[in-house]
Amino acid sequence: MAINWRRWWFIRPPLLLLAIFLLAILFFESYYQQRFYPGVKLAGLDLGGRDYGQAETVLRQHLAKLPSSWCFRWQKNSWCFANAGFGFAYQLRSSLDRAWQLGRQGSWPQRFWKQLRLWRRPRDLDLAYQINRPDFEQKLALIAADLRQPAIPPTLKVSGQTVEVEKGRRGRELDRQRLEEEVKMALRRGRLPKAFVLPVKATGRFYPPEQLATARQRALKLLSKTMVLQSERGTFVISGRELVRLVGFGQDWSPPGIDDYLKAIAVDVEAPARDALFQFKRGRVVAFRPAQIGWRLPRAPAREAMIGCLQQLAAGKSHCLVDLKLVKVMPKITTANSNRLGIRELVAEGKSYFHGSSLNRIHNLSLASQRLNGMLIAPGETFSFNKAVGEISAATGFKSAYIIQNGRTILGDGGGVCQVSTTLFRALLHAGLPIVERHAHAYRVHYYEEKSPLGLDATVFAPSVDLKFKNDYSSYLLIQTKVDARQASLLFQIYGSRDGRRVSISPTRSWDWRPAPPPRYQDDPTLPPGAVKQVDWAAAGIKVAVDWVVRRQGKILRQQTFFSNYRPWRAVFLRGPR
In the chain, how many domains are there? Predict the structure, then answer.
């Protein structure tokens, strides 16, 4: 039957409009198939209708107009640095790729609505960039150091029987957080100014004249007064001239001044408790350092007592007495219980060698191992290497030796301590003790591969990188260390009471071998001109794994695979500047 189109005349216009709409969409998709969609912007640049190459050209032309150096200005002072000094570069392709994806993801209806939204509400993306963060922070630190003017708080100066007030001054410092935000915004928008105006904030507190006058009157009342601090371990007298230092400006008294006194006194009255250290000899443990009771000065009660005494003196009393109540700190292990520790025999040992080490490196590993020598670990106790060795610095006796830090070989306090943690780790493995925390070195170190397979090292760096294990024996464990200078060896021995556990360590599995990069030469002003000294040796990168299984009476107590990912490491030579 033929269709009577006259009866359906009202359908024709909508169909015609739909056809036109579909044709328009097809034409739009075809036209923009190789072009950015309308409404796409990058750092304020309109890319709509441009193809990829045109957009890249426009972007490069825009960035070419940016200053070739970064300048920072404050008042009449300025600091300028070349872009290369920051390791700075824009990631153009990455930025353009992100902009290209706008309106091109999802199904056809989803893309259509995204394109429509772009047309109605354009998207302006930020530029992607990379920057050498340490270099950037170093430059900001230089500026901050130049700008910084420390605040000088007001002080009370005693001259004869009178007191004068020195007002001091407020300080200034760079507002680094705000500056970093401004720099990042400028980089993202590709709009570097000729010079960044440095945000500077005031430091220190402003004291009005009436507060300074009140403090002076209070100090005058203390000039002829005396405070006596007494304790079980000493008596200390504070004269009137010294009491003036305890007067505050924003408040009656100065807690920092009081705390400084207590800190100075604590040096004389406080003493840490010392656990007894033991040495395994002739089948039993004998003490070679007796236990010692410690003393601690509680700061808060002492501070409150001193403030109360100052109030009495200001009220008219000529002198007052402060009783410093010290607290006894008992050692955990005393000499008296040395025969009830259950230590009977050698449980396991670990060994490493340090041939070719510098005298400072040998000193450091000897000092660190001495701190562990005679150490006792109670049953159930978790042992921390960093806590047991303590602070590693020149102040605690360590010397400068070469260490690896941030991918470079530099002089640092404590170089060689990682040999101690590595040797202890090997002893722990052979003892079958639970390893709570262990970290492999980032690079292979030739000392640890001498007469030892790969993958049996452990690095430490306080406070975040530690070597920890738990004593799951029923007896105490005693650590003994021996440094043999003639054989250039370090030995760790663990004594306790064996419980039948057996340890197996698999041969090292290795894969992903990577060659060492070319050698690096670093100027060292301590060397004679033209002299060259090698301080590190090339090592290929490699990934290794070692399987460790502990059994007792045929049952597996624990098993673990220790992974190490050694990055390629270049040889490093130091040379004297010409």
Answer: 4
Comparing CA positions, the residue from 258, 235, 260 lying closest to residue 311 is: 258
Do 415 and 481 sit in the same domain of this protein?
Answer: yes
The per-residue pLDDT for range 403-437, each reduced to its tens digit, is 666 555 566 677 889 999 999 999 999 999 999 99
User: CA-CA distance, 52 to 37, in Å (whole number)?
Assistant: 11
pLDDT of residue 283: 62
DSSP state of 64: H
Which residues, in sequence order, are CB contacts of 391 under 8 Å at separation 6+? Answer: 462
Q: What burial class does residue 66 get, using C-beta atoms within 10 Å of its C-beta: 0-12 exposed, 13-18 middle, 19+ buried?
A: middle
Radius of gyration of the chain (CA): 36
Altogether, the residues listed in the chain come to a count of 578
| pLDDT at residue 509 greater than cutoff 80 | yes
> Please, what's the largest Cα pairwise distance for the chain?
127
Higher pLDDT, 570 or 499: 499
With left for phi above 0 and alpha for psi between -120 and 50, is residue 262 left, alpha or beta? alpha
| Whole-number pLDDT of residue 457 | 96
Structural contact between residues 58 and 102, judged by C-beta atoms closer than 8 angstroms: no
Q: Do 40 and 169 lie in a common domain?
A: no
Over the chain, what is the mean pLDDT? 87
CB–CB of 245/306 below 8 Å?
no
Whether the bond into 463 is cis, omega within 30 of 0: yes
Tokens, residue 483: 């440094």
E-strand ranges in 204-343 read 226-231, 234-238, 277-281, 284-289, 294-296, 319-323, 327-329
- Whether 406 and 453 share a structural domain: yes
Q: Looking at residue 466, what is its pLDDT?
A: 96
pLDDT-derived band of residue 488, with 50, 70 and 90 as boundaries? very high
Q: Please report how many Cα atoms fall inside a 13 Å half-sphere around the Cα of residue 460, on the Cβ side.
A: 29
Which H or E run includes 551?
Answer: strand 541-552
Spatial contact of 241 and 204, defined as CB atoms under 8 Å apart = no
Give the residue numbers spanning the domain of 421.
341-575
